[in-house]
Amino acid sequence: xxxKDHHTTQELxxxxxxxxxxxxxxxxxxxxxxxxxxNCTQIxxxxxxxxxxxxxxxxxxxxxxxxGLKDKPRPGQPxxxxxxxxxxxxxxxxxxxxxxxxxxxxNGPALxxxxxxxxxxxxxxxxxxxxxxxxxxxRLCPRPQHEKADLQLQQQFKKTSSGCWIKSNQPIxxxx
Length: 176
Hints:
Blueprint: H1 9-18, H2 22-35, H3 40-47, H4 51-64, H5 83-95, H6 108-119, H7 125-134, H8 151-160
């Protein structure tokens, strides 16, 4: 195993121990072991990687240094809602429902209609939930409150109503 001298053995040890990306740290650990003089079989045993994988790590390191070991961007289907519109969508969610939405709380179906009407994109329900999760939203929401609710009357009711319900003496039979 021939490693180019991009880094000393001690530098490789420090790099792999301080790296936050576990996949990259594992690759650097394999390089460190190779720099210490271990053979491929020993490195395979320690890192759990296949022989060809270790050979690829060393080849990429020799060609490009540590940058050659980093994950490349993986292609995938682009998001339906363009990234430039995500902030606007977040602000729309945080503004809450409007009269046009016809609901008192924004739920999945209401958000799908907003995306279609205001942003021109169609999402499945699961796709919408995946988008919301990626944007940092959870599925939990507070109990909805009616726009005409009077908080003072509600507080007064809580103070004046009895604290517990009275249990009936006779059980009520269900109809069969």
